[in-house]
Structure formats: structure tokens, C-alpha cells
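quick one before i forget lol
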Amino acid sequence: MDHNQDFDLDGILDGLDTEAPTPAQDAPARDMTPFLRKIPVRLTLEVGGADISLAELCRIGPGSVVELDKAAGEPLDIKVNGTTIGRAEVVVSGDNYGLRVVELNDLQLDSLA
């Protein structure tokens, strides 16, 4: 017995309103600011980087020194989820390291404050 014989797909589809509004048209605009403010992000301070060969990497061990591409005393990059947003200096805050902001890119995040 074929169970699909009694199923009238064409009749069901004909009964649907083809001009139905999309949910975006029906829903009022929402202020997403409170929601966006709660999204966690990872803030990091990047000291610098170096391009080295695999052979050089294999030679690295305890006591090795790798010269980075930042000059001593130069502000370091502040990154949020890997994207640079500004520059800062390292400070000591209690028992931890911290950062003192030197400059910020124009992020236009004022509405999230």
C-alpha cells in the first residue's frame, strides 16, 4: 500500500499564501545594544612577532633568544579576537601585568558603553 496516494501536496501548496511577509518585515526593529554588550571577547597585548624557518624553530631551546619585530619601549598592539584595535604599554597592576592604552583605532563603540 502506498501511503503517499492520499497525500495531496499540490492542494496544500495551492492553499499557501505566496505573498506572505517575511519575519523581518513583521518584526519591529530591536535595539541589539544590550545583547551585544554581553558577548565575550578576548583582549590581548601582542609583544611582537618573528618570521623564522622551521630549521631555526628546531634549534630553539631553553635559553634561546628570538628577536621580535618590535623595538624596546615601542607601544604594543592591543588586539580583540586577533584584530588590532590600538596600542598600549605594559604596566603592573597588583600582582598581574596590565596595559595602559596609548591610542585606540576609531572603533565607534560608544553606543555599547
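fyi The longest strand covers residues 83-93.
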